[in-house]
Amino acid sequence: MSTPPDVLPHMDAVQTALENAGLTVYLGGAPTDQGWTPPDRFAVLYPDAGRAVQASLAGERTDFDAVMQITCVGSDVVRALWVAGRVRQALAAPLEIEGRVCWPAEDLGGPPVQRDDDVTPPVFFVPVQYRICSTSA
Fold first, then answer.
1. φ, ψ for residue 54, nearest 5 deg
2. How do beta strands 41-47 and 25-27 pair?
């Protein structure tokens, strides 16, 4: 019997790919610490727990399927879209996860760029989602 896949290596691989593309990445939200000054562009990774998918009639759940949202944030529309472009480039190649074979991430898109006036100064953001799939090696 094989071990079911874990979401954490997948989340780490996405974060590493984004950071290797030169992006500042926060996990689960941007910092809210007093005195924190946001960079003029960054990405926020919101992973879901994914699911272990039955790979065969034998019932072994070795395949993994998850959606990860990356919210691309910038001080203006162009910077937010620049982040979205870097995310797309970073996730174009299959992720590298030890003991797993990954498909290239599937770009699921997202809504248009929006302005967030709840923060000072206001920022622009666009959430994009990617489907992450892998199987045991």
1. -65, 125
2. parallel
pTM of the model: 0.91
pLDDT tens readout for residues 92-101: 999 999 999 9
Q: What is the pLDDT of residues 26-64, one digit of tens each?
A: 999 988 777 777 788 999 999 999 999 877 666 778 899
> DSSP characters for 4-35?
PP-HHHHHHHHHHHHHHTT--EEESS----TT
In this prediction, residue 1 carries a pLDDT of 57
Give the domains, in start order, of the chain with CATH numbers: 7-136 (3.30.2000.10)
For residues 6-23, average pLDDT: 97
Q: Which of 25, 17, 42 is nearest to 132 (CA)?
A: 17
Query: For residue 46, what is the enclosing H or E element?
Result: strand 41-47
The alpha helices in 63-119, defined as continuous H runs, are: 77-90
CA–CA separation, 44 and 127 (whole Å): 9
Residue with tokens 């100064």: 121
